[in-house]
Predict the 3D structure of the following.
Amino acid sequence: MWKATRRNFLIKTGAGLGLALGLGWIGKKAIRGFFVEQADKGTLVQFSTDTEPQYWFEVQKDNTILFHSPKIEMGQGVFSALAQIVAEELEVSINQIKVVHSATSHGPIDPNTTGGSDSISSTFSQLSMLAASMREMLRERAVTLLGISLSNLSAQNGYVIGQGKKLSYAQIVAQTSEWSLPDTEPTLKKPEKYQVIGKALPRVDLVAKVKAEPIFGIDATFPGMVYAAVVRSPYFGAVRGVVNAQEASKSLGVIRVVEQPEFVAVLAKSRYEALMAKEKLQIAWTSPTPLLQQKEVNDTVQIGKGDLTVVQENGDVTGLEDNEGNIKLEFHTPLGAHAQMEPNGVAAYYKDGKVVVKMSTQSVKNTRNEIAEATGIRAEDIDIQPTFMGGGFGRRLYTPHAYEAVVLSQEIGLPVHVLFEREQEFQNGYLRPPTHHKLSAKLNNGKIEAIEHQIASGDVAFGSSLVPSFAPTVLGADFGAWRGGLFHYENIANSSVKYWRCQLPFFTSWWRGLGLMANSFAIESFVDELAKKAKQDPISFRIAHIKPDERGQRLIGVLKEVQKISGFGQKVLPEGHAMGVACATDVNTPVAQVAEVKLENGAIKVLKVYCVIDPGLVINPDGVKAQCEGAISMGLSASMFEELNIEDGKVTPNQYLQYQMAQIRDIPDIEVSILSTGDAPRGVGEPPMGPIAPAIANAVATLTGTRMTKMPFKQYQFT
Amino acid sequence: MLLKFDLNGKTQSVDVPEDMPLLWVLRDTLQQKGTKFGCGKGLCGACTVHLDGNAIRSCSVPVSQVQNKQITTIEGLGKGQLHAVQQAWIEEGVPQCGYCQPGFMMATAELLQRIPNPTDTDIDDNITNICRCGTYYRMRKAIHKAAQLNQKS
Ligand code: FES
Ligand code: FES
C-alpha cells in the first residue's frame, strides 16, 4: 500500500538547489518480493528499509536533473542504465539528466555493494517508483499553478503541459515552497510504452572518458595534498619488527615517516619522492617458517580436504564416484588476480573532527564503517565521495587504504593521497581462489541417470567482512564458491553437488562471477564429454536434460538461438576449425556461447565467439552487448593465459605481462544476440563469464581430441 | 633540477628530481591527470604519451630525457578539439571503465601516423596495451574507423 510521510520524502527548496527529492522509504511489498527472490538465488538483498531521507534527484535551475546514484560506475554502464530508468518515469530526456555518485553526507547510501550483477535488477522498481512519484508531485503542483485539472496535464521532456500552457520542472520548483505528497502509488508505465528504456543510447560517461577527465580515485586531489607511500607486508604471514627510518626521513621531499600498528608510511611532497624514500626504510620482518609455497596451496585445495557441505541433492548418487563403469573427470583452476587497470587510490582530508574521502570503492557503506571503526570518527562525520572506478571486478570490496589515508591525514593535518602500487595489488589485495572439481556420472540409454559435482575451493564470500554473519549458517556453504556450481540440468533424477571448504593461509575472495567461471568450466566440459559418450549432438543433449519450466525454457531459448546464429553442427567449417558450445544460468540470466577455434603454431586461436543472453527487460542493449564482450574477453584471458603461484610466501608474478593477460591480438570476433523474456531486468555483468572457457575447451576437444581439464589453456601445446 | 619542455604546445618549466618519471611530473607536478598509472614498469601502456611524435611509456622515462622536447598527452591530442581517434572511440562506444583508454588512444594516434591504414596484423603487432574491461573488440573497430576518418579529412 502506498504510504508516504513527510519524513520519507525530503523536499528542500533553496537558492541553486531547487527541489531535492528523496525517499528513504521503499515499498515494503517490493522488498519482501526481492528478499524471497534474492534469497532463492543466494545473492544478497538490496536496499533495506532505510528510514533516513536522502537526496536522489535535484531539479536544477536550468531544468536539468541531478541524479545521485547510490551505485558506483565501474565500467559496467550503471550510470547510463539508471539514467534511462529515471528519464523514462520522470519524463525528461536523457540529456537533461546528470548522474553523479551519491556522497554519504547527503545522498542515498547503498546498504550493500556495487557488484554481483544486481545493480539494475535490485533498484529498477524502487527507482522507477521514485521517479514516477516526483513526476506526479510536479504535475499536482502544476494543477494549482496553471489552474488546469490533473487529467489535462501531462509531463513531457521536463515540462508539465496542458491546454496550450506549459511550465518547466524548474519553474514549478521555483514557485513552490510547500509540497504535498501523492496519496496513491503512482502508476508505472507498461513496457510497451517505454521510450527511453530499451534504446541503445551512448553511455552518459562516454565523452568524459574519451577526453580522459580526472574522474578516478587515483586522480582525486585536494589543495595542498601530500602523497603517502605505504609499506605493506612483503610476504604472507610476515610480522613487522623494528623500523629504522633515519635514511628515509632525510630523503628528498619527505615530510614525515608515520608508524602505525597496522602500517608504516612515508609522507612526501610528491608521489615519486614518497616512493623513493620508502625504499630507504629499513624494516625487520619476521618470516613464518617455512614460507608458504604453491605445493601447500595445491595440497590444501583438494576434494576430500576441508569441510564438506552438501549444496544440492536430488535422488541418490551413492557409489557414483567409485563405480568403475561410470564416467569421471577432474578439473583444476589456478589462483587469479583482478588486475583491474586502476590501482586502488584514495584522497582523504581530515579537519575539525570530520573527514572527506574521495575514492573508488564498490562498498561505500562498508568502507565508511571501517574508517569509523579504525579511527573513532563518527560515521556521519565521514563523507565518502565515490569516484568512478577504473575497473572493479570485486577488488574494490576491500579498501584498507581508505582508513590508512584518513589516519595519515589526522596525523599530519593535511590532505593525503594513498595508492596501492601494482605489485601491492597482487600481493596485498586478494586473489581469486584456486579450485578443484570432480565430476562423475552414469549414462543410461543416452540420458544422464545420475551426476555428481564435487567442488573444492578457497573461500570467496566467507571471510569477507561484507557477508552477514548469518550467511554461513543459512546457506551452509560459501555461495561465492559454489556460484555456478549447481546443475542447471534439473531433468536428471539423481544429482548432487558437494562443496569442500578449503581454507588457505591468505586472503581469497570475490572476483567477477565468483565461482561461476571455474564451475561452468568443469560442468560444461563434462557434459560435453557425456554427450560425446552418448553419441549425441551437444545442444540437443543439453536441452534434453533441462527441465522445461520458466527458467529452463529461457535456457533452452538461448541454446537454440546460439545454434541458429552460429550454425553450430550445421555450418561447414573450414578445414582445421571447430566449434564448441556451453551455457550457464547465473543470477537468473541464461547465456549460451559458441566458440570457433583453430590452431596457430600449435596454440589455440579463438576466432569467433557467438553469445546469446536473456537478461529479461533490457535497459540499454548496447550496454548489454558491451558487458558480454567484456566478460567474454576477461573469461578468455583468464582461461587461456592467467595463472598465479605462491613462491616463498610471495604472489608470483606480481606485474602485468609476466602475469599474462589477453591483448588485442587474442580477442576474437564477438557476435552478441539478446533475447528478452519477461518485463523485469536481470543481471548481465557476470553471467557471460560462465560459458566462455568450456566453449573454448569443447571446441578444442572436437578439433584435437584432447580434453583440457586445467586452466590456463596455454599450457596445452598441439602439434 | 630545473627543466623545460613543451607540453601540448606550451612551454613548461618544472623543478623536480631529474630521475623523476615523466608520468609523475605530468600527473602530480603539472596536474594533468589524463595520463594514467597502471604498473610503473612499462608493461601496461596506461601511461602512453608522445615524445616528439613517438609513443612512449611515460612511467619509464625520466623527465630529464624530455628536456627541450615536445610532449603530447591525451589532453592535447586533439588540439582543443576531438582528435579523429577520440571521435572514432565515441562512434564505436569503446570505453567501459575508461581507465586504460587514454593510453590506447595515444598508442593508436601514433600508430596511424606511422601506418595510416593499418591491417589487423599491424594492430595486433603494435597495440600491446592492456584493457581489463575487455573493450578490445570495439577498439579494433575504432582503430579502423579512425583511419577512415583521417583519410576523409
Ligand atoms: S604505467 Fe607505464 S606502462 Fe604501465
Ligand atoms: S576500459 Fe576498463 S580497463 Fe579498459
